[in-house]
Design brief:
Radius of gyration: 31 Å
Shape: globular
Number of helices: 21
Number of strands: 34
Strand order of the largest sheet: 5-4-3-6-7
Distance between the termini: 53 Å
Largest sheet: 5 strands, antiparallel
Strand content: 25-35%
Length: 790
């Protein structure tokens, strides 16, 4: 047999083998080359093929085919330190991309990657790849602060200046502005259209043109507006959308009532925050003659005015949700509708979509009806008023005397529904929400905790009941529908939680793939009054999946609900508006054509709505972090009590009673060498065994607070004594950190200004400012032939 033929046989034999590698004897057996001369030829051929790199040997000396890279498309997510991850399938682990293999991809780009190393399940090491091509750039424009060059610099560089992006994910880039088009003044907040992207020699620079000047950095409210625009959230409605909203009548006509059930004679109220203007839900409760409860939940019928495929509908779809910031609301639909005809304002008729339920004393919903209606609320109640009334406040009781019996009945029904949810295992995480109070100029003047009294909780109970009822109704009809889902935690995350709980001596019932919400709630209840409560809550939250919208019903794990949707807030959430549209559509027609239409359109609606929700949450978090840092900037040098809210290998995060979080960097813990114990989220001193862990009480001093970077740093003054932890042997090699005064070792090179709650956990350090000469070396020269547009 010729060597050429033997090579083909060897490759075919390796491909056909059930095993990934074969010993020389196994290969000889597979190819029937066991005779002495044949075996000798086989060995010679294999050696030659190894030199040619058409096959290779593993550590055991077995023969295998070399790894063949496979090109796959995915979305690149960039870390501040330069490396990144590519998401190929949301249900699968991401692929790690080393810094040197990103091919200048930016956050959000659609890329093609080669898998260089496959995942190793035994070592829990994920797959590794390299970016081979950028298919589509995510970032087409950026928002940032313009720094102007002087006349000489403009002449030398042919650039107006540069823009520092407001988006933290792009903060490492400078966007150089070509000397053409709009020339902003220094300090302007501008929108830049990107014309050139990073490439070899220009790894941290972009080039672009200013398309719009938003304002100046010192203008009131410009800080928040910059974040909103940077997130791609529209700040104003297009003129044609405003015109369309003005064409919607501001009162109800008789023709609007055709086919609607008239409930205007019922005692119905709205209950909201005192500053709410878009009132989209109203409720009524009464006791039936058979002893059961009647619950009516009436929701503003926004879909009646925002009709399918209209300008208003398309704009609402694109926005996906209203965005609630410290001193403003960016609405999903124009305020003429959201605060006007769609808002369930008191004592005026309003069109609604109703869900009426009969509920027995155990909280079981026995009957329900879902229908179009018209209501007229008796009162516009606030949470504060309801809470005061239920606490027997005489003034409130007198003011709302006709409604007092209903509110007591509401409290009674709420307690029944809450107890039912708790019994089935709905997970109740401690929720501490803060409201940032600002002056007319937008400067924070105080941070106060939001208290959730019975008024807030009873509305939540009634909305949950309606959402579950509507979801179950349409699921059982087997009609295409949109659900709010929260899937079971992934096995690997649950296993980490099990290991963590076990390290604290807490036994969790169930297995990682069968654990129920009730099992997890029992863990929370078990540690409620123990020091471990905070850390268990934190780790459990990290183990949960993110809730999202879907055309498929997977239930809501956190609520322990088999069916769940969003029906109750159509003024501010597009999926709720779609649920109302589905109700109306199916009430008129349940033909195959109608079902096919919705089956085709709902996946895109669900996916886009989930993305817009995440965008809004990110903007809200950024604004909160910025305003908290601005508030604490005036507290430099002041001392506060707090608790450790998180522990990382680079320091400990401290949360103050007002929810502000800041970092004590590891380098500032100079009293010992500290080791990071990952499975217990703790730092332990090597010599003193001093331990820092989540939930521990501390006293700190504010040393830094920067609204631009959202970074707050603390100095540790005192720490509560807690039982010392042992240091696992492998931590001495891999997790050791040695903060020393005046030391010039590697640890000092890691000393950085701390990054608070929103900062990326892996810090990259601060570069020294370049001198003018060095700076100009990084300035891209105009119209270089090597600069490409995308």
């Amino acid at each position: 047999m010729e060597k050429k033929t033997i090579k083909a046989e060897i490759l075919a034999g390796l491909k056909a083998a059930n095993k990934k590698s074969l010993s020389m004897e196994e290969l000889a057996e597979a190819l029937s080359m066991r005779k002495s001369n044949d075996f000798k030829l086989l060995v010679q051929t294999v050696a030659q093929m190894e030199r040619e790199k058409t096959l290779e040997f593993n550590k055991k000396g077995h023969i295998k085919l070399p790894f063949q890279p496979i090109e796959i498309e995915g979305i690149f997510r960039r870390n501040e330190r330069g490396f990144g991850f590519v998401t190929i399938d949301p249900e699968e682990p991401d692929v790690f991309i080393p810094k040197e293999a990103t091919n200048f991809a930016m956050d959000g780009d659609t890329v093609m990657i080669d898998i260089q190393k496959t995942a190793d399940l035994f070592s829990e090491r994920g797959a590794e790849g390299r970016v081979v091509a950028i298919k589509e750039r995510k970032i087409q424009q950026l928002v940032g602060e313009f720094t102007a060059f002087d006349v000489g610099e403009i002449a030398e560089s042919d650039l107006f200046g540069y823009v520092t992006p407001k988006d933290k994910k792009s903060a490492q880039f400078k966007v150089f502005i070509a000397a053409e088009g709009i020339q902003p003044v220094d300090g302007s907040i501008v929108i830049v259209e990107i014309t050139h992207y990073p490439e070899k020699g220009y790894a941290t620079s972009l080039e672009g043109m200013v398309t719009k000047v938003v304002g100046h950095k010192n203008d009131p409210g410009m800080d928040i507006l910059s974040i909103v625009i940077a997130q791609g959230i529209p700040t104003a409605f297009p003129e044609e959308v405003q015109t369309a909203s003005e064409q919607v009548p501001d009162h109800i006509s008789e023709s609007d009532l055709v086919g609607r059930r008239d409930l205007r004679d019922q005692q119905i109220v709205t209950i909201d925050g005192a500053d709410a203007k878009d009132l989209d839900d109203a409720v009524t409760v009464r006791r039936l003659e058979n002893g059961n409860y009647f619950l009516g939940v009436h929701i503003a019928d926004v879909s009646y005015y925002v009709t399918e495929n209209s300008l208003l509908d398309k704009e609402a779809f694109e926005r996906g949700t209203s965005v609630y910031l410290t001193d403003r609301v960016i609405p999903m639909i124009p305020q003429r509708l959201s605060n006007g005809i769609c808002s369930l304002n008191p004592k005026v008729p309003r069109l609604t979509m109703s869900c009426e339920m009969e509920i027995d004393p155990t909280g079981t919903i026995l009957k329900h009806e879902i229908f179009q209606s018209v209501i007229q609320t008796s009162e516009r109640m606030t949470y504060a008023a309801v809470n005061a009334l239920l606490k027997e406040d005489r003034e409130m009781i007198q003011r709302y005397e006709p409604l007092v019996p209903m509110f007591h009945l509401m409290k009674e029904l709420h307690q029944i529904l809450e107890e039912r949810r708790n019994h089935r295992g709905a997970i109740n995480f401690e929720d501490r929400e803060a409201k940032i109070l600002v002056d007319p100029e937008g400067h924070p003047i105080d941070i106060e905790l939001r208290e959730r009294g019975v008024g807030e909780r009873l509305i939540e109970s009634f909305m949950l009941a309606a959402n579950e009822t509507v979801a179950k109704h349409f699921n059982q009809l087997k009609l295409p529908f949109i659900y709010r889902i929260h899937e079971q935690p992934k096995e690997e995350k649950m296993q980490r939680f099990f290991d963590f709980a076990a390290a604290l001596g807490i036994l969790v019932k169930g297995t990682k793939n069968t654990i129920t919400p009730k099992d997890l709630q029992q863990v929370i209840d078990e540690v409620e009054d123990k020091p471990e409560a905070a850390v268990i809550n934190t780790m459990l939250l990290r183990s949960m999946q993110q809730a999202r919208y879907s055309e498929d019903n997977y239930g809501h794990y956190g609520l322990a609900a088999e069916y769940y949707t969003h029906f109750t807030s159509p003024i501010r959430r597009y999926p709720d508006l779609i649920v109302h549209r589905l109700i109306r559509s199916y009430s008129q027609d349940q033909s195959d054509a109608t079902k096919d239409k919705w089956a085709e359109s709902l996946p895109e609606i669900a996916d886009h709505s989930s993305k817009m929700e995440r965008r809004a949450v990110e903007a809200e978090r950024e604004v909160d972090s910025m305003k908290k840092a601005e508030f604490m900037a005036e507290k430099i040098g002041e001392e506060f009590d707090g608790i450790i809210s998180s522990v990382t290998k680079f320091g400990i995060f401290i949360e103050l009673p007002n929810t502000v979080e800041g970092l004590i960097h590891l380098n500032e813990l100079k009293q010992d060498y500290f080791h990071f114990i990952e499975n217990q989220l703790a730092l332990v001193g090597e010599r003193t065994r001093q331990t820092f862990k989540i939930g521990q009480k501390v006293r700190v001093k504010v040393t830094k607070s920067d609204p631009e970077t959202r970074e707050i740093d603390f100095e540790l003054l005192e720490a509560e004594e807690v039982p010392a932890l042992e240091i696992p042997g492998n931590n001495r090699r891999t997790q050791r950190r040695r903060p020393m005064n005046g030391s010039k070792n590697k640890q000092n090179s890691e000393k950085k200004t701390g990054k608070n709650f929103e900062r990326a956990k892996n810090e990259s350090g601060k570069k020294k400012k370049k001198g003018k000469k060095a700076f100009y070396k990084s300035v891209p020269k105009k119209k270089k032939p090597g600069r490409k547009k995308g």
